[in-house]
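User: Please predict structures.

Assistant: First:
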Amino acid sequence: FSPQVDSANAGRVLASDAAVFLKKSGLTDLVLGKIWDLADTDGKGILNKQEFFVALRLVACAQNGLDVSLSSLNLPVPPPRFTDTSSPLLLSGTASSDVPWAVKLEDKAKYDAIFDSLNPVNGLLSGDKVKPVLLNSKLPVDILGRVWELSDIDRDGMLDRDEFAVAMFLVYCALEKEPVPMSLPAALVPPSKRKPVSVPGAMPLIPPSTSTKESHQSLPPVGILAAKTPLTQ
């Protein structure tokens, strides 16, 4: 029972503490609210150890595209992922750089062919170009909206080759009647988009400065710094 959550060591978790912790799962408030309602069986706003484990299990279900319901509790799912590396019990979503990409090579070749046929500009497709392809699947608009949200990983309103492959993968999953997950599972994040695991205590490239103008004058651009660091190490 993690000291991060049960700070008073009382064997139970208050709603406020649990909310902060569960938010690190990356799920929406709506989904987390549903998870809490199912886990807090007596409606007291406090979870005991058993109820807290139910909440964690439901988080894992939601992250892997399963329904948030008590019937999903018996299904096999990987452990829940939380964006916090300070606890050895928790798997950070970013630590999954070793997980093989869920998009198979032969499928990627098909998706790349579709991508190229849509005339990408500088290796990117705008939402206007992707939209007809998504609508062509005849999936409900809310599902397609979620597919777009999940596949536009860097949130720039455009899809690159890898992001487009994620979108196509999710569309085909939905067509096979598999639910589209609420948050992108680690295995679906393209290797090119996976963040390296940050080393605790690593120095940031640019120290925080009170005035941005100062930092621009006293430091070379980030690109140059990044290029120099291997030599200085």
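Second:
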Amino acid sequence: MLVQRGPEQREDSLRTITLGAGDRQVIQTPINDSLPVSGSSVAQLFRQLGIVNVLYLFCAALTEHKILFLSSSYQRLTDACRGLLAIMFPLQYSFTYVPILPGKLLEVLSTPTPFIIGVNSFFRSETQELLDVIIADLDGGTVTIPECLHISLLPEPLLQQTQTALSM
């Protein structure tokens, strides 16, 4: 059963703040504030890449880096992309998101904007020349971060607490 919010409920979720000089900003709670439906994709992502690698990808996505998933399985590509977006909740990824990129569109990987893209591992050789792209190999369970990129991880002690909680 779907329940639509009435006008009086919407007004309760709006907050107006003033930054000064008569400027007004309106902040609203998310329209859909329920948890994303990810099935087993988040658990599968952790199984394939491990806790440390997934935390690297999480921090890379939050800091607007380019992330490329490689796999011979289209299902794994889709699940990994969906899983990464799910662990970012309640934040929404606002850049290019393509769970399965066709081989004829590989030039998109050279774009200067951040992305989360999945590509069949058949095209691995075409991705080797990308210098600013983090490559997550789902078949091999590895994450390759180019030397020219620096990913800021969660600050301590939060990083250790997160790793401990995820390992339980």
